[in-house]
Amino acid sequence: MEKRNNVTMFILLGLSQNKSIEIFCFVLFLFCYIAIWIGNLLIMISVTCSQLIDQPMYFFLNFLSLSYLCYTSTVTPKLMTDLLAERRNVSYNSCMTQLFTTHFFGGVETFILPAMAYDRNVAICKPLHYTIIMSRQRCNTIAITCFTGGFIHSAGQFLLTVYLPFCGPNEIDHYFCDAYPLQKLACTNTHEISLLLIVNSGLIPLVTFTILMVSYVRILYTIRAYPAESSTKALSTCSSHRTVVVLFFVPALFVYIRLTVTFPEDKVLALFYTIIAPMFNPLTYMLRNTEMKNVMKKMWYYQLFLERK
């Protein structure tokens, strides 16, 4: 079918039409966005400039923080601008660019989290072979695979959407350009494309989340014979990762693991994987991870404050 596209501009309906709520959300999201940048940059600098970069867990954490910074920056600045704007317009090209970039960095995150779980699984279940299995060469290969997987995922989302005909209306019931809300605006039957989108956006996180759960079950099965102190220590190395996994995957699965039907709650749930999870990533690792806290104290407290004295 020949593509008919009369729409050159979309209108984002955003989170709310109430001005007082929008001002409150702007202040809240501004605080969150600053916290995301400060926290994730601190992690990246602390890991890169210390011996932690040699450990696979923190090697992947470095990439996770980078993906969070890029991911939230494709959504949050536009969201905050629209909260104060009278009209929330976005051009067709900008909308398609945002669709591609959000799914690219979101896809990278989707694959890096299982990579981190795999690292913890090897460390706990096969400690004697850990250094051999998780060599730097293998870590580099896994990182490249994560970025490649993110690109393939986002390319699929982009290609399934960019060739759709849009004849009007042009109001997107969301605060950023996503495939499901855009499907509702297409002036053609999108049933087959919806099924492909479920495979692309729904099954990928479902499969990776299942792998994560299997990985944690295997860890629990392995440490059941450990002494209480050793098992507690082993689980503590996974606690920060578990928090981020729940904040990212649970709302994402609810939004994407169904046909292209949107609910008002989708916009609130989307805040968890676009803003909340990127903000809690540095908080969980800086507050609950002993190694990260020690490096932070050494790098930032002792160097910035004690040296002045």
Features:
mainly alpha; 3-stranded mixed β-sheet
Helical content, roughly?
A: over 70%
Strand order of the largest sheet: 2-1-3
Q: Which regions are unreliable across 5 or more consecutive residues at pLDDT < 50? A: none
The profile of the biggest β sheet is: 3 strands, mixed
Q: In what range is the share of β-strand residues?
A: under 5%
DSSP E strands, number: 3
What Rg is obtained from the alpha carbons, in whole angstroms?
A: 21 Å
H/I helix tally: 11
User: What is the distance, rounded to the nearest whole angstrom, between the alpha carbons of the first and last residues?
Assistant: 73 Å
Q: Which sequence of SSEs, written as H and E, runs from N to C?
A: EHHHEHHHEHHHHH
Shape: globular
Subunit arrangement of the protein: single chain
- Average predicted local confidence, pLDDT: 85
How would you classify the helix and strand content by structural class? mainly alpha
What does this structure look like?
This protein has 309 residues and is an all-alpha fold. The protein is built from eleven helices and three strands, in the order βαααβαααβααααα. A three-stranded mixed beta sheet has the order 2-1-3. Helix 1 packs antiparallel against helix 2 (56-73), helix 2 (56-73) runs antiparallel to helix 10 and helix 4 packs antiparallel against helix 6 (136-162). The longest helix has 34 residues, at 92-125. The chain is globular and about 65 Å long. The model has no long low-confidence stretch (mean pLDDT 85).
